[in-house]
């Protein structure tokens, strides 16, 4: 469970943990994060991949302990701003996104994106160089802060404003909401768009916070004419044949071993051993 308030009214993982979490605990490493972004997996299930393309709007939110040009993972390793910049550039070259909204909440957060140069990225951070980011309130049951101020007010803004797909707010509205009076630090922003005239006022919040999924209805088809089904059946058959051949080879090898042992025993008997 994850809570954004000490009252524990809302579990951000949903009722009965119905929010799917692909990586958690010690699976969350710099290496796994970079592989998700760049899709550099040797073997990995689709559920743990970012299956994006050139039409995808991607939202990346990072929070935790950090400093100038770095953010800690598990208090054990660090990701640096240059790593992120290289990953985003690689994603652009591989056509893995249309635009990225990158938000980060940590001390000196704005240094993490100061040198970004990958196209079509808008980055918003919680604090300037040499400036801390502050926690919002403490949960006395566990004795630590539940949430930081920047993250708290980002969540508050979204909960107050995003209720349906007709919401017309922009990232400028969100940016203005994150005032010094609320956050207690100076937030920052950097835009690197191919369209140099683009501003926060031109970017709709629902471009990143509203998920739409097209569902294609597949009509019943004749099995013999469905190429995918036929190919799948052939694949299963080939794998089954491969397994049967292996089993036969293994039986032959085992039988040969037994035969060699039998002949050796007979030879030893004949030689009087």
Helix content: 25-40%
Radius of gyration: 28 Å
What is the CATH level 1 assignment of the largest domain? Alpha Beta
Tell me which CATH architecture of the largest domain applies here.
3-Layer(aba) Sandwich
| Poorly predicted segments | none
Strand order of the largest sheet: 1-5-6-9
Mean pLDDT: 82
**Shape annotation:** elongated
Q: Class by helix and strand content?
A: alpha/beta
What is the count of DSSP helices, taking H or I runs of 4+ residues?
A: 7
Instruction: Give the number of DSSP strands.
Output: 9
Beta-strand content estimate: 15-25%
Domains, number: 2
Topology:
Layout: H1 30-38, E1 57-63, E2 66-67, E3 70-73, E4 77-80, H2 81-93, E5 99-105, E6 121-125, E7 135-139, E8 144-148, H3 149-161, H4 171-177, H5 180-183, E9 188-192, H6 206-209, H7 227-270
Parallel strand pairs: 1-5, 5-6
Antiparallel strand pairs: 2-3, 3-4, 6-9, 7-8
Summarize the structure in short.
The protein has 273 residues and is of the alpha/beta class. It is 34% helix and 16% strand.
Structural commentary:
Pathway: Glycolipid biosynthesis; glycosylphosphatidylinositol-anchor biosynthesis. One of its GO terms (molecular function) is GPI-anchor transamidase activity. Belongs to the peptidase C13 family. One of its GO terms (biological process) is GPI anchor biosynthetic process. One of its GO terms (cellular component) is GPI-anchor transamidase complex. The protein is α/β, with parallel strands linked by helices. The chain folds into two domains: 15-209, Rossmann fold (3-Layer(aba) Sandwich); 223-270. The protein is 34% helix and 16% strand. It has seven helices and nine strands. It has helices spanning 30-38, 81-93, 149-161, 171-177, 180-183, 206-209, 227-270; strands spanning 57-63, 66-67, 70-73, 77-80, 99-105, 121-125, 135-139, 144-148, 188-192. Strands 1-5-6-9 form a four-stranded mixed sheet. A hairpin with a 4-residue loop joins β7 and β8. The longest helix is centred in the C-terminal third of the chain and has 44 residues, at 227-270. The protein is elongated, with a radius of gyration of 28 Å. The mean pLDDT is 82.
